[in-house]
Write a structure and sequence with these properties.
Elements (H helix, E strand, L loop, with lengths): L5 E6 L6 H15 L3 E5 L6 H6 L30 E2 L2 E4 L11 H12 L4 E5 L7 H5 L4 E7 L2 H20 L5 E8 L4 H11 L2 E7 L3 H7 L10 H19 L1
Parallel strand pairs: 1-5, 1-6, 2-4, 2-5, 6-7, 7-8
Antiparallel strand pairs: 3-4
Helix pairs in contact: 1-8
Length: 244
């Protein structure tokens, strides 16, 4: 597996747009290279496919994968998911969450990670699948706001991720993505020094993003702040691949 073949986006606080950023990264990966698979690990609802605007497309959802045992042939599962322009989306089908064992989730993630498409995961901090994701040595993006409460959330999120990686004896590449109306360089520098992880990008608030979401557009299409952030992530992934 090449470096950063798996990317996980973790929102340190709610409402920061982690799902939107996850989808935009997958879209930009698919636009510049092989296909991408984006996986929603909030299994209590089917929000990601709605954010992507692909809920009307045919294909399998988490609800259809409860009987998975063992690894599937690489690439076989991705081809059965709802797909738009090279991005395959795995989400729960609306309403109540699917009845899935952690073994099924682990085997599905393993199968997708071994396929030709790059894997981008929308990973809630409290997800039971966190150890399985860390097992693939992902690039983990911690999306954090810059207000006082949001910074406390980021501190707790980074500590939790490092602790779980240490328990699993797995190295983890954590990068910080800040979110807010504008980047205050001094504040960002202080946050980076405190958290001890590299700052990858500042995602500025952009009124075009919620407007396009209401129109059902797949994130990462428009030339907006989310796309610019996604492109910065793709550049890190591509640089790691070239260096390997």
């Amino acid at each position: 597996m090449s470096p950063h073949a798996v990317i996980a986006v973790v929102g340190a606080s709610g409402g920061l747009g982690a799902s939107t950023l996850t989808l935009a990264i997958a879209r930009r990966l698919a636009a510049t290279g092989p296909d991408a698979v984006v996986v929603d690990l909030d299994l209590t609802r089917g929000g990601l496919e709605v954010t992507a605007g692909v809920e009307h497309l045919p294909g399998q959802r988490w609800n259809d994968l409860g009987d998975v045992r063992g690894r599937l042939p690489p690439g076989a599962l991705a081809s059965r998911l709802p797909t738009e322009d090279g991005v395959h989306v795995l989400s729960a089908r609306g309403g109540a969450g699917p009845d899935l064992s952690q073994r099924a989730v682990q085997d599905v993630l393993g199968s997708l990670a071994e396929g030709p498409a790059r894997l981008v995961v929308d990973l809630p901090l409290g997800s039971p699948a966190l150890p399985a994701v860390l097992g693939h040595r992902p690039l983990v993006l911690v999306l954090a706001g810059l207000r006082t409460r949001a910074l406390a959330d980021a501190d707790a999120a980074v500590a939790h991720l490092l602790d779980r990686a240490d328990q699993a004896h797995r190295p983890v590449d954590l990068r910080l993505v800040t979110r807010g109306p504008r980047s205050a360089a001094r504040i960002v520098d202080e946050v980076v020094a405190h958290l001890g992880i590299a700052h990858l990008h500042h995602l500025r608030d952009d009124p075009h993003v919620p407007r396009d979401a209401e129109r059902g557009l797949f994130p990462g299409i428009a030339r907006d702040e989310v796309r610019r952030c996604a492109d910065a992530v793709v550049a890190v992934v591509d640089d790691a691949a070239k260096a390997s």
